[in-house]
Write a structure and sequence with these properties.
The protein is an alpha/beta fold. The protein has a single domain, classed as Rossmann fold (3-Layer(aba) Sandwich). Helix content is 35%, strand content 28%. The chain has 10 helices and 12 strands. The strands form 3 sheets. It has a 6-stranded mixed beta sheet, sandwiched between helices. Strands 2-1-4-5 form a 4-stranded antiparallel beta sheet, with helices on one face. The chain is globular and about 50 Å long. The relative contact order is 0.18.
Length: 251
């Protein structure tokens, strides 16, 4: 199985004269889960948008398999890297199969005809995620956990092997969070590379191959969970003393 990589190298980005990212370097490869921790406003979402090509950095380079994104078409990028947003409520009550099918747009084009290959790809994704029984239900009627699986299905339908997820645990109850983490582990085992932003250090400790922290626009830590999810790092990130997961005190 080939290894695919997405890497931001020494990224600088400012907004309205305020430095958001300052020499930020971050990478993602197949068969790993990278969890990115940081306070609100630390620049996590901005970094994701730059990795996805939605924003252009002031300085620095983003590379897909060693090739600058400036030389990669939007269509090719979408076939290699998929975005899973936070839970959202679409304005129209699309069927689940229609939402997952939107992931085929990079292959078919906006006005292209879907083929049996596209249909089979959508069906296979729904079966693999266990959401085939939901295919003809309206997305707006699903639970938060079911909607998040549909969003993953849309991403997988693109054919992308690198997944970028912005706080995917938002709005999920504890049971759905545990199920979602199991799903991410399964995807990693199938060779996918997954970048996840989260505010939950315990989630990172449970699923990550690597944990990175973003502080003042820079990557402050990058390593195995056991090396990063430690009291000193949690104190620096969130201003709390963490003696054990689920037990934090304000400093």
């Amino acid at each position: 199985m080939s290894t695919e990589t997405l890497a931001a190298d020494t990224i600088y980005f400012s907004r309205q004269g305020r430095a958001v990212l300052v020499g930020t370097t971050l990478s993602l490869a197949s068969q790993e889960i990278v969890c990115l921790l940081g306070r609100n406003g630390a620049g996590k979402t901005t970094l994701l948008r730059i990795l996805l090509g939605f924003l252009r950095p002031d300085h620095g380079t983003v590379r897909l398999d060693g090739r600058s994104l400036s030389g990669v078409s939007r269509r090719m990028l979408a076939q290699r890297v998929a975005y899973v947003p936070q839970l959202h409520q679409p304005p129209f009550p699309y069927l689940v199969r229609e939402v997952v099918g939107m992931g085929r747009l990079p292959s078919t084009g906006l006005f292209g005809q879907t083929s049996r290959v596209d249909h089979n790809a959508v069906e296979a994704v729904m079966v693999s995620l266990g959401i085939a029984p939901l295919a003809d239900r309206h997305y707006t009627q699903l639970s938060a956990g079911e909607r998040q699986l549909v969003m993953i299905g849309r991403a997988l339908a693109q054919g992308a092997r690198l997944l970028v997820m912005d706080e995917p645990f938002t709005g999920l109850d504890y049971g759905h969070q545990m199920e979602f983490m199991d799903r991410l582990r399964s995807l990693k085992g199938q060779g996918y590379g997954i970048l996840v932003t989260t505010h939950q250090p315990d989630h990172a400790a449970m699923i990550a191959t690597r944990v990175t922290t973003l502080v003042a626009g820079q990557i402050a830590d990058d390593g195995p969970p056991a090396d990063v999810i430690v009291p000193a790092v949690i104190r620096r990130l969130y201003g709390v003393e963490m003696h054990s997961f689920g037990c934090a005190q304000s400093s």
